[in-house]
């Protein structure tokens, strides 16, 4: 099938591109399955169509608060407890005396789903701005609306309003910094380096994340114009790798395997595909200026 919509259809398509069933492809089924996983992982981590921007909402629990506020034994504010504190020790010989250094680390993280491979930021929260009609922002926008419509005595134009709001955004950016976070996709842990006293049990935090597009949920991934040739080249390289040890062996009729040539051709194809990935399918890195 030229447009595969399942894992097996993608495998069959790639094998046909290599000559099957006319030519026997000397690659084990287990090897093919491993290569499919490798290709999909590369697709998720490098291709802009491999991920989707999502907003995850997480509700803070009492356990999160206890771990976030935990202090090392003997530290100030010890009433918060020491649950979740990890201790690492290092020993050095200083002037003939063995000295131990103890380091403490909070477990101030929340576990994110394995499908999340990147976290952009955590949206602002807290600040005691009030709720509903008592919200300060709500009252400010209500006054702005009256001024813009000219209902009040001090009506003003859109340009003045835009400049004023831009200035207020700058003030807010300087005085209310974004929440500091740390994330590594191999650990699935999002560390929130914040003042946990600003949070409340039951409050939600919103995460701006990148989630992988699971091909089992989105079958069109199997028909991606990058994934198909990339997996074909991976299988071809594995085919050549399997045949390299038979180089020089004569088969009946004088036929000789040339696994090295198949391997080298596949490697050259992979290099071109990965180069095209960087220039065409991969999002460029953001420059930091200033």
Summarize the structure in words:
It is built from seven helices and eight strands. It has 290 residues and is α+β, with helices and mostly antiparallel strands. Helix 2 packs across helix 6 and helix 6 packs antiparallel against helix 7.
The helix-strand sequence is HHEHEEEEHHEEEHH
Task: Quote the average pLDDT.
Answer: 85
- End-to-end separation in angstroms reads 52 Å
Major sheet, described briefly?
3 strands, antiparallel
Number of helices: 7
Roughly how much helix do the residues carry, as a percent range?
25-40%
How are strands sequenced across the largest beta sheet? 1-8-5
Shape category? extended
Q: Total strand count, please? A: 8
Offer a quick outline of the entry.
Helices cover 38% and strands 19% of the residues. It is of the alpha+beta class.
What's the helix and strand layout?
Blueprint: H1 7-17, H2 29-46, E1 51-59, H3 62-69, E2 86-94, E3 97-105, E4 109-111, E5 116-122, H4 136-149, H5 158-175, E6 180-184, E7 189-193, E8 204-212, H6 227-243, H7 259-281
Antiparallel strand pairs: 1-8, 2-3, 4-7, 5-8, 6-7
Helix pairs in contact: 1-6, 2-6, 6-7
């Amino acid at each position: 099938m030229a447009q595969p919509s399942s894992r097996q259809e993608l495998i069959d398509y790639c094998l046909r591109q290599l000559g099957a069933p006319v030519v026997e492809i000397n690659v084990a089924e287990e090897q093919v399955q491993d290569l499919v996983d490798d290709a999909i992982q590369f697709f998720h981590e490098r291709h802009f169509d491999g991920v989707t921007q999502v907003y995850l909402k997480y509700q803070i629990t009492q356990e999160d608060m206890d771990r976030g506020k935990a202090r090392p034994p003997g530290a100030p504010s010890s009433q918060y407890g020491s649950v979740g504190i990890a201790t690492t020790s290092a020993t050095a010989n200083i002037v003939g005396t063995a000295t131990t250094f103890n380091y403490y680390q909070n477990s101030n993280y929340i576990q994110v789903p394995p499908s999340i491979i990147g976290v952009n930021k955590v949206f602002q929260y807290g600040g005691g701005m009030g709720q509903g009609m008592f919200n300060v922002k709500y009252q400010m926008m209500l006054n702005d609306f009256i001024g813009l419509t000219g209902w009040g005595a001090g009506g003003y134009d859109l340009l003045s309003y835009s400049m004023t709001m831009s200035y207020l955004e700058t003030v807010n950016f300087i005085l209310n910094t974004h929440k500091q976070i740390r994330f590594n996709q191999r650990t699935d842990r999002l560390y929130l380096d914040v003042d946990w006293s600003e949070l409340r049990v039951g409050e939600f935090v919103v995460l701006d994340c990148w989630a992988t597009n699971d091909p089992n949920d989105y079958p069109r991934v199997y028909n991606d114009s990058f994934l198909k040739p990339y997996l074909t080249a991976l299988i071809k390289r594995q085919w050549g790798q399997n045949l390299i040890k038979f180089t020089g062996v004569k088969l009946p009729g004088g036929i000789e395997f040339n696994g090295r040539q198949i391997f080298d051709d596949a490697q050259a194809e992979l290099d071109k595909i990965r180069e095209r990935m960087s220039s065409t399918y991969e999002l460029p890195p953001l420059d930091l200026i200033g």
